Amino acid sequence: MNVAKSGYRVFSANSSEACTELAKKITERLGVELGKSVVYQESNRETRVDVKESVRGQTIFIIQTIQRDVNTAIMELLVMAYALKTACAKNIIGVIPYFPYSKQCKMRKRGSIVCKLLASMLAKAGLTHIITMDLHQKEIQGFFSFPVDNLRASPFLLQYIQEEIPDYRNAVIVAKSPSAAKRAQSYAERLRLGLAVMHGEAHSSESDMADGRHSPPCVRNSSSGHPGLELPSPNSSSGKQQAPFPGIELPIMMAKEKPPITVVGDVGGRIAIIVDDIIDDVEDFVAAAETLKERGAYKIYIMATHGLLSGDAPRLIEESKIDEVVVTNTVPHEVQKLQCPKIKTVDVSMILAEAIRRIHNGESMAYLFRNITVDD
């Protein structure tokens, strides 16, 4: 029995069969049964959850993998959490290996920090704890009003490199952008390999738009002897910009311009292993692979935790110079694997199951982070 043997219950909050595979693997490792519940969509696309067991006073773990329909998956999680809260569950812990909207964790122009909004919604729905993996930015943990365990997939990916990549000693770890250099450096140090960093992109990256509260357009002041920025007067009704105070001018802000892609480091005659946390739109990875090939790399591997692989990603990977894309099963991608044999999967259900067991038993989580730094 799920209750008598374990003292806790594990439910899957997903209505998709493909998304329940990870939940089944976790419960098999824990030696418990998956909780009896029904999650489905009404004819008008409303989400309905029906919990078939009593959960009063119990500790509940909700496993939710995020499929392509992200918003439906979020509603399934929120509705199930609220249903369990209403049914008087003692603790409700969400196991969300890939946390959605994690890329929207910074202010951009007149947008919003959606990741913070989602964190507040989960708390309001009744969650008291979250287990996730490789958050896009580790500072996201500060958005939550309850504990967050941010597990790492790097030990599994490192093991894959050592066991499945022939002659990996002749490899070099590559950071696709300077922002990924810390992660790549951590991999390189653990594998005792060299490091290369790519700089420049075909188009502006998301970090360029992180804080979109830009100054007004740069305008030269014809009345002054040097260039400056004229600020709009609060009392001015015309469209012309005027300085609010005489003699006050700000220096012109130089516009950013991305240089052509360059590689800092030697990749000639080596295996190039690009590491990242998320692979979704693959155009940047394809362009990086072409550049590395031009620089002499004879094999290109991509290692990422979350394989979203949206849109035409499988086709682009298949037609590219990338030899293999290795991702974990935090996100279902069986359809993409059928379209592209280059996509390989690493199972991380073991560490998720161990995290559930340790939290339930009140054991320390430090064992799961041994020898792991914040840069992993």
What are the salient characteristics of this protein?
alpha/beta, 14 strands, 28% helix, 10 helices, 20% strand, disordered N terminus
Helix content: 25-40%
Identify the overall geometry: globular
Radius of gyration: 24 Å
Terminal Cα separation, in Å? 38 Å
Averaged pLDDT: 86
Major sheet strand order = 10-9-8-11-12-13-14
Low-confidence stretches: 1-5, 214-226
Question: How would you portray this structure in words?
Answer:
By secondary structure, the protein is an alpha/beta fold. The chain is built from ten helices and 14 strands. Strand 8, helix 6 (181-191) and strand 9 (194-199) form a beta-alpha-beta unit. Helix 2 crosses helix 10. It is globular, with a radius of gyration of 24 Å. The two termini are 38 Å apart.
The gist of it:
This protein has 376 residues and is of the alpha/beta class. The chain has helices spanning 2-6, 21-30, 70-86, 114-125, 154-164, 181-191, 283-294, 313-319, 334-339, 349-361; strands at residues 8-12, 37-41, 47-51, 59-63, 91-96, 129-133, 148-151, 171-175, 194-199, 262-264, 271-279, 299-307, 324-328, 343-346. α2 (21-30) packs across α10 and α3 packs parallel to α4.
